[in-house]
Design brief:
The complex is a heterodimer of chains A (212) and B (166). Helix content of chain A is 44%, strand content 7%. Chain A has 9 helices and 3 strands. Chain A has 2 domains: 83 residues, Methane Monooxygenase Hydroxylase, Chain G, domain 1, CATH 1.20.58; 106 residues, Up-down Bundle (Methane Monooxygenase Hydroxylase, Chain G, domain 1). Chain A has 212 residues and is mainly alpha-helical. Chain B folds into 2 domains: 97 residues, Methane Monooxygenase Hydroxylase, Chain G, domain 1 (Up-down Bundle), CATH 1.20.58.1030; 47 residues, 3-Layer(aba) Sandwich (Ribosomal Protein L9, domain 1). Helix content of chain B is 58%, strand content 13%. In chain B, strand 2 and strand 3 form a beta hairpin. The N and C termini of chain B lie far apart (53 Å). The chains are: A mainly alpha (212), B alpha+beta (166). Chains A and B meet through helix 3 and helix 9 of A and helix 2, helix 3 and helix 6 of B.
């Protein structure tokens, strides 16, 4: 039962997919950073200062979304310097290497893997270790995801899915879909033509009038 | 539309600052860069949203067939309707050129059909339905019929009929 609607998926590695909605949501996450030089007239936009004429003093701490950090980051680092969010720092890295399965990745920012890959874009002396940690976490969590997605048929999966971040959830859903398709085939329903899920959704939704 | 106006306002402000920067105040470069980032971000969000809509409309063609129900058409912009018509035309030309294949075969992705005729039950009132040899069938709720497969496939996908396995 393949669907006709294939949305643009998130990018892998250092580059994001321009048109991917998942990537756009992911790059909305905030990073801690510091202003390297005085930024005139930006105070109103970033939430500090009273009027439009204020400038942000040097070395003040800021929380900026990822897309802004990528845009303002320069190799000479005149404008912004970024710091790592705490989940990618030393302390958490030892937690991950101890046992990655117990961490609630959804609470820690639901885009752990994607965001981490983007962080590698900024120059940072700890980059190789961050990359290693992300990879190791994924490897150790993957087995449990695969197990649970292939064996939970017709059950409520919210308990299993609650601790996964977005990439893992996508994997889980792919596994579930494969399982459902296989069960359908076993039951002989594979040759039954069904109304597609798009049609069913449209039937249930009530259309409201748009304002002009 | 609101987003477009916001973009225009930002762009105009940016232009003012650019001209000011050219006249010698180099410390405003950061501001210009910041606004440029915001503009790019808005542009990216808008483009992704529009592209996603197009993808869904394309999926509608494969699910619904050539004619969209009115409620959906009401929600589409004029350009999207035009895009849909052009996509329909390209798809039809392609299907014709592949040597007489029916469009529905391309969307049929499950096992090859087991028989020419299938048993269907009607889920809601549809009215009269004519088959190839001229007989009309009145489709009322819960009536069962034994009909040729290719005729009812589209109705099944739309949810009007239900396929019953024996």
């Amino acid at each position: 039962m393949s669907e006709a609607y294939h949305p643009v998926g998130p990018g892998l590695g250092l580059e994001e997919n321009f048109l991917s909605l998942d990537d756009i949501l992911m790059s909305q996450e905030k990073l801690p950073g510091r202003a390297e030089s005085a930024l005139p007239r930006l105070a109103f936009a970033l939430g500090q200062g009273a009027g439009t004429g204020d400038s942000i003093p040097e070395q003040s701490k800021l929380e900026i979304p990822l897309w802004l950090a990528k845009g303002l980051h320069d190799s000479k680092r005149r404008i912004i310097s970024v710091e790592l969010p705490k989940i990618y720092k030393e302390a958490w890295r030892t937690v991950f290497s101890a046992d990655a399965n117990v961490v609630d990745l959804h609470k820690m920012g639901p885009y752990y893997y994607g965001f981490g890959s983007q962080l590698l874009n900024f120059d940072n002396p700890e980059n190789p270790e961050i990359a290693q940690t992300i990879l190791q976490t994924f490897i150790s969590r993957f087995r449990r995801i695969m197990d649970s997605s292939q064996n939970a048929y017709n059950e409520d999966t919210s308990v299993l899915v609650a601790r996964l971040d977005e990439l893992e959830r996508a994997l889980f859903q792919a596994g579930q879909k494969a399982l459902n398709d296989f069960q359908c085939w076993e039951k002989g329903q594979a040759s039954q033509i069904t109304a597609s899920s798009l049609v069913q959704n449209y039937g249930k939704r009530k259309f409201t009038d748009m304002d002009a | 539309r609101q987003a477009l106006e916001e973009m225009r306002a930002l762009y105009e402000r940016n232009q003012a600052d650019v001209s000011e920067a050219k006249s010698g105040r180099t410390d405003l470069i950061f501001l210009i860069r910041f606004r440029h980032c915001c503009l790019l971000r808005n542009q990216r969000c808008i483009l992704a949203y529009l592209y996603d809509r197009l993808l869904r409309i394309r999926a509608l063609r494969w699910e619904y067939g050539s004619v969209l129900p009115n409620t959906i058409q009401f929600h589409m912009a004029a350009e999207e309707v035009e895009w849909f018509n052009r996509y329909k035309k390209s798809l039809a030309t392609y299907m014709r050129s592949v040597g007489g294949e029916e469009g529905l075969d391309l969307t049929q992705d499950i096992k090859p059909p087991k028989s020419l005729y299938i048993e269907v039950r009607c889920l809601r009132d549809y009215g009269e339905f004519e088959i190839d040899d001229g007989t009309t069938v009145l489709l009322k709720k819960n009536s069962q019929h034994f009909l040729p497969r290719w005729k009812c496939e589209q109705l099944i996908r739309q949810g009007v009929l239900e396929h019953i396995l024996l």
